[in-house]
Amino acid sequence: MMGWTLNELGLAYSGLGSFNEAIDCYQQALAIRREVGDRYGEAVTLNNLGETLQGTNEGEAAQACWRQALAILEELGAPEVEEVRSRLNVHVLPSCGLRSPAEARAALAGGSEVRPNLLHQCQSANGQPCPHLNFFGSPAVSVGR
Fold first, then answer.
1. Given this structure, which CATH class describes domain 1-96?
2. Domain residue spans in the chain?
3. pLDDT tens across 76-92, in order?
4. Among 18, 63, 73, 144, which residue's beta carbon has the most beta carbons within 10 A?
């Protein structure tokens, strides 16, 4: 119950523009939800935290939250999977220079319609392939489904 209350308080703070307070509430809610094993609640809080982080120009942190939420929701077979996947499409693809999920699929498949060197340009800090193109599970099949 406390995790739910803190999540709702985070929503209220976020709605008032008190983003630091909202983030603090979400982080406390996450700790509680993880401690009690509330996986669905964890995903909801991660989604809300991502929304708030996106609103504070913390795009990478927001995307990390949404990827975690997506993985949990997929594991649970929750109907919100498509909502989170769409949010990632809207916010992540442009940051990689991609215009659509179809372009991401083409990039992953090595299609010629994608600008040259796109995948090379979008690398994570450790030189691994772009994490943005891999958050949908099996990317060549499921990006944008």
1. mainly alpha
2. 1-96, 99-145
3. 999 999 888 888 776 65
4. 73
